[in-house]
Here is the input.
Amino acid sequence: MKTANNPFDISGKSSIITGGAMGIGFGIARRFVQAGANVLVADIDRKVVEATADSLQGNPGKAVAMQIDVSQNDAGDKMVERCVDEFGSLDILLNNAGIFPSVPMLEMEPALFDKVIAVNLRGLAFASKAAAAQMIKQGRGGRIINIASIDSIHPSMVGLAAYDASKGGVAMFTKNFALEVAPYNIQVNAIAPGAIITEGAGRQDDKTEEEIKQIFDEFTKMIPLGRAGEPDDIAKAAVFLASPAADYITGEMIVVDGGRLLK
Here is the structure.
């Protein structure tokens, strides 16, 4: 059996990263282009995603921006079509786009609940469908990596009922879709981040900066490794799952939380 000289090599691969303009998505995009993969950076904010793609130029891999709302019915098809037009193929889909409004369920409006599910779960599912169809057409397999959450496993706080429901759905969708596309050599896995310091985590409309800092400080005290995570902690796990090193892994979720769920 032939083995790769570098089992973590993703050079020359073509990828889509949703929610790739900031935070975890940007951290993953940066690692991918540094490793030689081409990246379609997809995000809802045109100016921000274009600036992000510009900042990634000069690496071994190419970066191209695309403005898209992943909750739209045809978003998955449009992203796949653009990726193939730009790079000639699609090898990796990284579903990262997500929102996490903090609203107790007793105060939740149906429209907000539906929006969270539409972005975090429905958009992810139909992007995966479109990506898998292209990978099957190409005939050489591929990777789908979903960003779940430790809230897929255990709730972190009151106010995230909609988010937790969506991320619990991501965990089970990952397993079921992995089963469905395994015959085509498409591996579907997930990463469950814990507390990660990002622009989004530090900006919530219903909380002051002081309140957010207090929440993070209290959460950090429960992390055995003694610190909150950084986007690069997730990015390195994503490179692993995208690489030949993960050839025999599918339907699994890697928890990257500094040990938070141990306590």
